[in-house]
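Let's study a protein:

___
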Amino acid sequence: MARPKKDANCVEARQRIIDGFWTLLEERRLSDITIGMVVEQAQCNRGTFYYHFESLDALLHEAIERELLVERDIPGMIFELACGIEDSPSQRLGEANELYRLSLIMDRGGLDLVAEEAKRTIVGMWTALLVPGQAELPEPTREVIEYFTSGTLGLISYRFAREKEGRPASSTIATDDFLKRNAAFVIEQVARYQGMTEADVLARLHMASCLMHQARA
């Protein structure tokens, strides 16, 4: 294997590799991208690549994590959508559509990978909210939360695909109705499985939402 270049350990080299991956994704399916393509696009060698990433999967997971959590708090947005208090939840969803790279990777075959990372984070948020101090949620509660997360991400991916094809996205009214109905279902089922009232679940959600807004301010 080629030795890392002199600048291999610098932040710029790592960023070039990540940017090279996104550039390749513009024209290729996720499954078609190789390490050789990435290093050529990033103008580095394999030694430099492996200095920063153990594998292509490691690069992929960091790229997704950055888009989900650093560039925009998508798990936080989905968590707040479950409160069901947005006058126009589709407007919040539209904020996610501005995150081009996240929509791109879902469109190129990475929806399951994005959903896996998002669900892991969101389930952790709900766990802290509903059973603080415990390791995990009961399985039925977890499944409901993962269902809502997957559905919301699927809607983001669907809207992106339609816009890319030059077709209008689904109507705001239809999207709002879908999200509000799903939010109501989540609250109802979580309350049922946790032995709580819906009002108690909503109160905890609203408190967590307020804390999230304060943290962003």
Q: What stands out?
A: The first helix runs from residue 11 to 25. The CA atoms of residues 4 and 14 lie 12 Å apart.
